[in-house]
Structures are given as structure tokens and as C-alpha cells.
Write a structure and sequence with these properties.
Length: 374
């Protein structure tokens, strides 16, 4: 069941001090009493939660959107995912995201990275299709401004040849913060938006978005997956305030609305998901082990489930079997739940020595336990 946020049956419900405090917090998040219109105040009131967000029925979501293994289907119909990331310093993150997509059940997984990362990523697995088309500043240090513009144009042109094939892009794992590289990726994101291709933004992709929110603002097929520090920077940038854990649900709702209704998966002890209309919590399973790389698994997982959710919604358009009809929210719930189950299973066996690769190996088993293949 999902929590809808709307007006109560009149302003009398604002009498309680707790609700008033929530109202004041939301209004401060939107800019304070001094510089927002009466309409924005009313919007803040409308955003008030009628209660705490409910725990998502994550296993039911997983069962509903995971496609059956049909022998009549052909290669590619179970999902084609592309990861945009991987540079000279970071090669593990894009691999984790891309291989996780395959382990869950996507048919094809691509990585678009720099030349310095490509050979390394290829050596991790022959299953991935690796495209060394991105460039960093150090590799074009002797190129003038006109030459750089041409290189950027060539990168975009090369990626556009593949764009229409993909069901979802994962932006950011191992991307790094090279300015030329980030500029090229921002253009790829703009083209993805123009082509109506869903995007999941994580890692250094969130650094890019935080510094230029307009890239994703208002794009309903965008998902942001911030950790605690990335979330803090987004709140400061968009809402102009510090994170307030006391009103975590209201704050997340306000943040999503402030970015035009993009879906945000806030990672934590319990993951919170909001698209500006609802707030859902995913707290089942989980592991106390916090090894690096789990966010990369999550981004690849969300990408797959988002694409499957879109397929499910199209197939059941007249008789939907699950609510709400928002593939980004469904993808986040499913991706979060599966990662948490796989992490729990890996921890049972490896305890303190659990690594990201151990969790990845448990993805298939975890999904099979919830959605048997036969």
C-alpha cells in the first residue's frame, strides 16, 4: 500500500503542534516565509504527510514486475542496460553496476568508459560490452578549444548510435570528476532525456547533478540514488537547509518536488523512496556490513527493475496488477529489496569478510527465492 500526500479534510487538522512544526519545516525548506508566495505555502501544506510512510510490499513488487522466462522471447527483450562511467582511477564501480544487471536477468550490459579503464574492465568479465569512447582532460591536454569541442561532439555522436537500443542508463559509477568528462556526460544525459530513455544517477553522476540540477529537473524517468553525504549536498543545494532526520519523509518529499518530481532513493538503514507524490520505505533484510560497492550493485539493479516495470505497466495497461503506476518507484523498491536480501545472504556465510563480489554472487539466488524461474 502506498501513502498519498494531500490536504486533510480542512485546515482544522493543522491545529496540532506536531503538524504545525512539519508545516513550518516544509515552508522553510521551500525558502521561508519572507520570500515564498501564498501558493507555495499552500503547496507546503499539501505536502504534509498524513502519517509515517508505509513499508513497501517489496516482495510483491518483485513478483509482479519480474518477467517470466519465456522461450519465445529473444535476446534483448529482458533488458539492455548501459553504464556510463569508468576512468583511469576507478574501474570497479562500473563493473559492479554492469555485472549486477546481468546477474539479475538483463540480457545485455554495456559500459561506456575512458580508454584507460576499458582494458581493465574487459579483463574482469567477457560478459560485458565495453566501449572506450570517453576522454579525460589529461589525454587531450595538448588540444585547443576547437579541438576539444570536436572531440566532445564525436563522443556524443558515437553514443547516440547506441542510445535507442537501451532500456535504461546508469550514470556515474566510477565516473570521476574530470571537468571535460563531466561536460560530455551531461550532454549524454540531455540526449537521453530527449530520447525518453530512463536514467539512474549514482556516484559522481550525483556530483554532476548537484552542481547542475537542471539536467534532471522535471524528468520523470530519472532516478537519483544518494548516500548520506550525497543526500546532504542535494538538500543544501535544492532546499537551502540542513538535513533534518526528524522529518525525513517530509524532507524527501519536498526534495523530490523541488527537482520537478524525479524519483529519489535515499539509502540508509531503511531506504526511502519518493517521486514527489508518495513516500515508501524498504527496510526488509539488510546487512551490518558496509563494504564499498553496494551502491553500484543498487544502481545496476534499479536500472533492470525500472525497465522491467515499464514493460509490466505497458503489458497490463488496462488491468494494472500493482499500484502506483510509476516504473521509477517500482524499480527502486525492487532494486533496494533485492540488494538487501543478497547482502543478508552473503553476510550469513562471510560475516565480516563479506565483499561486494560476494553480494553479487547472491543476487540470482535471492531473486530465485522470491520469483522462482520455474
Amino acid at each position: 500500500m502506498f501513502v498519498k500526500h494531500g490536504m486533510n479534510s480542512g485546515f482544522s487538522s493543522l491545529a496540532s503542534s506536531a503538524v504545525l512544526r512539519r508545516q513550518q519545516f516544509l515552508i522553510r525548506s521551500l525558502g521561508g516565509y519572507s520570500n515564498i508566495t501564498h501558493l507555495k505555502r499552500m503547496e507546503a501544506v499539501k505536502c504534509l504527510s498524513e502519517g509515517p510512510s508505509l513499508e513497501a510490499d517489496a516482495e510483491n513488487v518483485l513478483r509482479a514486475i519480474t518477467p517470466s522466462l519465456d522461450p519465445t522471447r529473444h535476446k534483448g527483450q529482458a533488458g539492455k542496460i548501459a553504464v556510463i562511467g569508468g576512468c583511469r582511477e576507478y574501474t570497479g564501480a562500473p563493473y559492479f553496476a554492469a555485472i549486477s544487471a546481468l546477474k539479475i536477468g538483463a540480457d545485455l550490459s554495456h559500459v561506456f568508459c575512458t580508454e584507460g579503464a576499458a582494458t581493465v574492465i574487459k579483463s574482469y568479465s567477457p560478459e560485458l560490452i565495453v566501449h572506450p569512447i570517453l576522454e579525460e582532460s589529461y589525454s587531450i591536454s595538448d588540444v585547443d578549444d576547437e579541438g576539444r569541442r570536436q572531440i566532445s561532439k564525436n563522443i556524443l555522436s558515437e553514443f547516440d548510435k547506441w542510445m535507442e537500443r537501451f532500456d535504461c542508463l546508469v550514470i556515474g559509477p566510477g565516473l570521476g570528476r574530470d571537468l571535460f568528462l563531466l561536460e560530455c556526460v551531461s550532454k549524454i544525459m540531455t540526449h537521453a532525456r530527449q530520447s525518453n530513455v530512463p536514467i539512474v544517477v549514482d556516484g559522481d553522476g550525483l556530483f554532476l547533478v548537484t552542481n547542475n540540477v537542471d539536467i534532471v529537473s522535471g524528468y520523470r524517468l530519472a532516478v537519483l540514488t544518494p548516500n548520506v553525504n550525497e543526500y546532504k549536498r542535494l538538500v543544501q543545494k535544492v532546499l537551502g537547509c540542513e538535513v533534518n532526520e526528524k522529518y525525513a519523509h517530509e524532507e524527501l518529499l519536498s526534495l523530490s518536488k523541488g527537482i520537478g518530481g524525479v524519483t529519489i532513493l535515499r539509502k540508509g538503514k531503511s531506504d526511502l523512496v519518493s517521486d514527489g507524490e508518495i513516500v515508501q520505505s524498504v527496510g526488509i533484510y539488510g546487512s551490518p556490513r558496509r563494504c564499498g560497492g553496494q551502491g553500484d550493485i543498487l544502481s545496476g539493479s534499479v536500472a533492470v527493475f525500472l525497465s522491467w516495470a515499464r514493460q509490466h505497466i505497458l503489458a497490463t495497461e488496462r488491468e494494472p496488477s500493482i499500484s502506483p503506476i510509476n516504473p521509477t518507484v517500482l524499480g527502486c523498491i525492487a532494486g533496494s529489496a533485492l540488494l538487501r536480501k543478497a547482502a543478508s545472504l552473503a553476510f550469513e556465510h562471510k560475516k565480516r569478510s563479506t565483499l561486494t563480489t560476494d553480494i553479487i554472487e547472491c543476487l540470482g539466488q535471492s531473486l530465485e527465492a522470491i520469483c522462482p524461474a520455474s
